[in-house]
Amino acid sequence: MILGLVAICAPLGDSCLSRGMTALPAISLSHPVTLIAAVFTPWIALGIALLIAFFASYLTALSWADLTFVLPATAFGNVIVALLARFWLHDSISLERWAGIVLITLGVSFVAQGPSLTERPTSRESPEPAIEIEQEQVR
Amino acid sequence: MNFASQAAHVNPWSAAAMIACVVLCSTAGEVLTAAAMKSLGDLDEIRARAGLKGAIRAVLTCPLFFAGVSFLALAFFSLLFALNHLNLSLVAPASASLTLVTNAIAGKIFLKENVDRRRWTAAVLVCIGVYLLAH
What we know:
B: mainly alpha, 6 helices
């Protein structure tokens, strides 16, 4: 659920920002205040909200899963963007890109089959170091 | 001079250095952020115990989190700098795909994660896939 949110919110947020910014007239560096006004337009506000949701979900995922699990798993967002572009925006996808989609999907399925978190020994499972500490204290 | 010819005249070593800078800053940011989140523990449990405000407070009072975000910001500005000199079609796929591999290496070395054969295969497959998709 959380990984799905990470994968969906980032590309959707970027797409909303892109759609919002291209709909606006060109912004020049001599009028930076217009950038602040852009933040309050509906598409850009939605894009920012989605990117905040992405970051919150990403941090939550990192709190209970390994980085080497989260990053490949959430790369599926790239596939979602490509498929959205193909079926929603009717962009054409080259053979190279289809190959990329297949490889990412394979990679995600590989990583999803394994454990999400590295097992670490707890203090209860390794009593020897605790005994050593007690001996140190006695000395 | 147009943008394409400007990008074509960049020394290959300079281009590699710019992309390496993006990749290294991004990797450092990801690893520090992951370390910060691991040091806090499960955010869902913190939220259940102390509410949403408690979870946000826990994240915002963690120094490692700010170190991670600083490196991610540095990676963003390095990316902007690289885009100023190089073509998007080179920088975006190269940095996105290489970051996956460097993160797997850094995760194993610094976070002591169990990067087994399955995770290496996934990292390499996704790395090639992202390159093909973004190229």
